[in-house]
Amino acid sequence: MSNGSKKGGWGWLVWVVVLGAGGYGGWRWWSAQQNKTQLPTFRTAAVSNGEIMQMVTANGQIVPVRTVQVGSQVSGIIQEIMVDFNSPVKAGDIVAKIDPSTAQQGVERSEADLSNAEASVVLTKVTYDRAVALKKDNLIPNSDLEKAAADLQQAEAGKKMKLAALNSSKVDLERTTIYAPISGVVITRAVDVGQTVASSFNTPTLFTIANDLSKMQIEAAVSEADVGGVEQGQKVKFTVDAFPERTFDGVVKQVRYAATTNQNVVTYTTIVDVNNADLKLRPSMTANASIITGQKAQVLRIPNAALRYKPVDAAIFKDPTAKDVGTNNTMVAAGGAGGQPASETPAGGPSREEMRKRFENATPEERAAMRERFGGGGGRGGSGGGGRGQRSESSGIKTVYIVADTNAPAGQQLAKPVKIKTGLSDGSFTEVLDGLKEGDLIISGSIGGSITNAAARTASSPFGGQPMGGGMRR
Predict the structure, then answer these.
(1) Furthest-apart CA atoms within the chain: distance in Å
(2) Nearest-5° angle of CA 463, CA 436, CA 297?
(3) Does residue 431 form part of some domain?
(4) Which CATH number is 125's domain given?
(5) What is the mean pLDDT for each group of 10 consecutive residues in the chain (474 residues)?
(6) What are the φ/ψ torsions at residue 454 (nearest 5 degrees)?
């Protein structure tokens, strides 16, 4: 009986050991699955041959090349108007008349004053001649003769003044008839018949005449960040809201040195000549212009997404024959998160672990500076406005990634870094000057792939820490 009890006790112990070993094995398997790296499936794009058109965008108003504001130099009531909006006129045509009554009275008054002055000259001339005759006989002193001469001279000067006043009155009378100073089209009319205009202090504007609407220009505001690439003679393409499906052409005529500052935004006015032979464009329309600052045809190009993409460390091919320059002993340290090459650790410099610790202990301002230096984006793109135009990323060495083994199934492929030299960028594609050839497949993004191990989680930080955007845990 006691032997049976011992055997039963040993059996239970065996079962407990077996179950414990099985549980431990299951826990190890579950832990291994939790720490297993699930690689992403890469999206690839081929290096193509095509056109790169670098542009700077700017907005501005369409205005006539030459406009003249027609005003009145005399005051009075508008008696007659000969033109209206959109009326074509030629230089010298009468466009309006002001009531000439007041000016006519001024002329008549000046004529009367002139007649009086002429009579005064005749009278003083007679007095002077008599004084000369008396002086010959020594009947009057020299002073009387000199006074007679002065009176004559004063009378003649008064006559000239009255003559000038008469001419001025005649000019005012002529100005009651208003003429077109240039040939063109009346684009604004600011007065009506019967309206009184006063020109005592400021010349009132009656009409605005555009010289030739078949030739227009755009006064575009180019930001200070983009104006360095804008030059005279560059081609311009623009659209207007009235014709959204049509693209118009123009040429940069002038880049003005004078700056305009609005809410701390500095812009420079750029004049663009526009051919408006069909008269579709109208004054004051808003133009959305793209100034072509660089253009190349039949060049190697890659999508800009490939410059911004950086896979996690666990998905990067580790070449055992390459010299260790970072965590992955390849060129990983050269590939910034946005395509901008990160600073490689020089010989004798701080290690990646030391750099990570520095990042963890840094202030928020220092961390921001580190992110800008080591994990910043590649280049500055365009926008608007104040827009800002599309600008090329700085020409230099960038890092992109290709599939290390194209025969590997999706989800098990590794990315291999390749250094390239870039040129112009149009916001969508970037020119490749060296490092790739047409048809090469580069990685532009990824689909899926959940990285759960600690090494993969640290890949998004250039120092091996938490991702830049999520903050650091102490």
Answers:
(1) 189
(2) 120
(3) yes
(4) 1.10.287.470
(5) 54 71 67 59 88 92 94 92 94 95 93 94 92 87 90 94 95 94 94 89 88 94 93 95 95 95 94 94 95 90 90 77 42 35 42 62 59 44 39 65 81 85 88 88 77 37 37 34
(6) -65, -35
For the chain, how far is it from start to end, CA to CA, in angstroms? 63
- Is residue 45 domain-shared with residue 133, that is, in the same domain? no
What's phi and psi for 332, nearest 5 deg? Answer: -60, -40
- Write down the pTM of the prediction: 0.61
User: Position 264: which residue type?
Assistant: N
Residues comprising the chain, all counted: 474
Cα angle 448, 464, 395; round to 5: 80
Q: Whole-angstrom Cα distance, residue 42 to residue 409? A: 11
Residues paired with residue 224 on neighbouring β-strands, in sequence order? none
Question: Which of these three, 175, 204, 221, is where a domain ends?
Answer: 175
Full residue range of the structural domain in which residue 377 is found: 37-51+301-470
DSSP 263: T
Among 319, 92, 303, CA closest to 209: 92
CA-closest candidate to residue 459, choices 291, 243, 312: 312
Residues 44 and 157 reside in one and the same domain:
no
Query: What's the domain count of the chain?
Result: 2
The Cα–Cα gap between 431 and 427 comes to 11
Tokens of residue 340, six digits: 């901008």
Cα angle 401, 404, 406; round to 5: 110
| Angle (nearest 5°) at CA 310 between 308 and 312 | 155
Q: State how far the Cα of 342 lies from the Cα of 48, in Å rounded to an integer.
A: 26
Whether residue 143 sits in one domain with residue 41:
no
Of 116, 146, 175, which marks where a domain is finished?
175
* Half-sphere exposure for 321 (CA within 13 Å, toward CB): 0
